[in-house]
Amino acid sequence: MTFLRIEGFGKKFNIAHLHQTIQAVEEINFSVDKGEFIGITGKSGSGKSTILKSIYRTYLPDEGRILFDSEKYGEVDLLKAEERQILYLRKYEIGYVSQFLNVMPRTTSRQLVEQSVLEMGKEPSIAKEEAEHVLSHFELDRKLWDTYPTTFSGGEKLRLNIAMAAVKKPRLLLLDEPTASLDHQSKLKVREVIEKLKADGTTLAGVFHDIEFMDGLCDKVFDMKLRKYTNAGAFI
C-alpha cells in the first residue's frame, strides 16, 4: 500500500535582496510503501533536504502534491493540510531528525525523552518507563542519562536525537543527513538504530551523502539528478 506519494513536487525560493526567484526543485515524483526506507541521493544543493522539510511542512512547496496516509485523517495532501492537522501529525505520526541537536539548555537526556512522551498525553510514570526503555534500546550509555547533552559526542547526540523521535513511535520518520561529520564507528551505531526502527515498522525517508552507508539499508533510492529510482543494492 502506498504510504507516501510525491507528485509533481516543486519549490522556489525568493531572494529578496537580489530581487530573484530561484527554482530549487521541480518535477519530483516518487512513492514509498508502508514499512519501506527510501534514500534520496544527489549533490549538495540539489534539493534533497528541501523535499524532507516540505514533507514535514517546514517549507511550503509551490507545486505538486505530497500525499500521506494518515492514521487519523486518511489520505491527506500535506501541502493543503490545515495548521492544526500538521501540528497533530508532527506530534503523533511524523518525526524529523537532522544532524543537529537543538534542545532546551540544562535539560538532561532522560528529561528530554520523557518530555517527548509527556507531549503525547502519557502519565509521568509511563514517560519515565518509556524513556529508560528507548535510551537502552538505542544504546546510550546509562551514565549519560542524567547528563546535559551539550557534553556529548556527535554520535551520542545523534542517538539521543533519534531516541527523542522514536519514543513517539512515528509512522513516518524523516532523516536529514543524520551521519554528516560522524566517524565510522558512530555511523555503524546510527545504522543499527535505523535498522531497529525499520524492524519495528516505521517507514523512513532519508537524505545521505554517504552512499556506502546506504548500501543494503534502503529498499529504494531516488536520484535527484536522474529524477528516477536507482538500484538500491548498487551503490559501491
Task: Please specify the SSE layout and strand pairing.
Blueprint: E1 2-15, E2 20-33, E3 37-41, H1 48-55, E4 63-70, E5 74-77, H2 83-92, E6 94-98, H3 109-118, H4 124-137, H5 154-166, E7 172-176, H6 184-199, E8 203-207, H7 211-214, E9 220-223, E10 228-230
Description:
- InterPro entries: AAA+_ATPase (IPR003593), ABC_transporter-like_ATP-bd (IPR003439), MetN_ABC_transporter-like (IPR050086), P-loop_NTPase (IPR027417).
- This is Alpha-D-ribose 1-methylphosphonate 5-triphosphate synthase subunit PhnL.
- Its EC number is 2.7.8.37.
- It is an enzyme of class 2 (transferase).
- It is found in: Cell membrane.
- The structure is a single chain.
- Strand 9 (220-223) and strand 10 form a beta hairpin.
- The chain has a 6-stranded mixed β-sheet, with helices on both faces. Strands 2-1-4-5 form a 4-stranded antiparallel β-sheet, with helices on one face.
- With 236 residues, the protein is of the alpha/beta class.
- Helix 5 packs parallel to helix 6.
- It has 7 helices and 10 strands.
- Helix content is 32%, strand content 28%.
- It has one domain: 3-Layer(aba) Sandwich (Rossmann fold).
- The longest helix has 16 residues, at 184-199.
- It starts with a strand and ends in a 6-residue tail after the last strand.
- It has helices at residues 48-55, 83-92, 109-118, 124-137, 154-166, 184-199, 211-214, and strands spanning 2-15, 20-33, 37-41, 63-70, 74-77, 94-98, 172-176, 203-207, 220-223, 228-230.
